């Protein structure tokens, strides 16, 4: 694995459609046949080198811009321990942390090595334990949650319990990280939501919602923070708005005449538009407008993912990377969306494309007056991409009089008449 992922040399953003006011979105999807170890994607994170790490029910892999690379697990302290990936997180140094059914592991991007950590539970050090959720704190501390919360001690190199009395006393079942290293904790038995700081001090609590149809404590899966006090909570009973300052919680059933989805599996807030993206359990992806006046439903297709539709009606996790690409973890693989332009993201080196750029070493790109993209490569000649087809065609030095004498090109340019000039 190289230390720097030059994504711009591997991928292009292709203009093959225009988003409409009705919310037409184009996705590009990956399945097992594209290199995923499992179609059931559980989590995703980006490390400090720009690599995307994907966790699934069958293992961990990373995506370098054009292909997936699986990571083999092992039993020693310098290997990934466990194949069922529950959660992924990146710390402030860009290192990757992995929560599995067997331990918490760290991938160091500077040394490209794994290390696993023990947990101190009831006074005993354990090599094997389950970690459900990871929390990378702003000060560099790492925590995980699995019925209890544990924090990595930098001296002992072991995870040790924190806020243990509070969590056990209130029978906390779910925990979510908020801004400023605060935590929203849920106790179904007490029908209460607690907001605490990183030191375990209680900041607020909300009690209520004790009817079967209005119970926010029944399997909450995700939260998003509107401000310091307002939170959306999504779960098996729909979407709730929790106000920790007023200590109230209210279910959102409808937006105008549009019904809200009943089973929420993931939430994401677009900080640019203010829109709320809601992944559901089999009810399609929904987008709640920032003004709370409309809902857009994004249809999915599991039969033909090459149509650039979302590949599943169940979205387990939504993640935005440093390139403003939205990644959707689903039960049928991965889907990607470019939200900054509403144009589809497409990897031309992918074998499912109609045409394939022969090498990932792209040196120059030029556009003709008619909109034809010429892509110069180092060793693969020139590829032409017709945005209206779309299809790639290659020109190489096959020894014919009408083909190029050199496949390694450093620069290309069109003139006003559409003639292409190249230098190698």
Topology summary:
Layout: E1 12-13, E2 28-30, E3 41-46, E4 52-56, E5 59-63, E6 68-71, E7 85-90, E8 96-100, E9 104-108, E10 113-121, E11 124-126, E12 133-136, E13 142-145, E14 149-152, E15 158-162, H1 164-169, E16 174-177, E17 183-187, E18 192-196, E19 202-207, E20 220-225, E21 230-235, E22 238-243, E23 248-252, E24 254-255, E25 258-259, E26 264-269, E27 276-280, E28 285-288, E29 295-298, E30 315-320, E31 325-330, E32 333-338, E33 345-346, E34 362-367, E35 372-377, E36 382-386, E37 391-395, E38 411-414, E39 420-423
Gyration radius, in Å: 24 Å
Beta-sheet strand percentage?
35-45%
Q: Give the total of beta strands.
A: 39
Shape: globular
Q: What integer is the average pLDDT? A: 79
Secondary-structure-derived class = mainly beta
SS element count, helices: 1
Largest sheet: 9 strands, mixed
The quaternary state of the protein chains shown equals: single chain
Give the gist of this structure:
This protein is mainly β. The protein has one helix and 39 strands.
Description of the molecule:
By secondary structure, this protein is mainly beta. 1% of the residues lie in helices and 44% in strands. The chain has one helix and 39 strands. The strands form ten sheets. Strands 7, 8, 9, 10, 11, 12, 13, 14 and 15 form a nine-stranded mixed beta sheet that branches. Strands 2-32-31-30 form a four-stranded antiparallel beta sheet, with no helix packed on it. It has a four-stranded antiparallel beta sheet with strand order 3-4-5-6, with no helix packed on it. β22 and β23 form a beta hairpin.
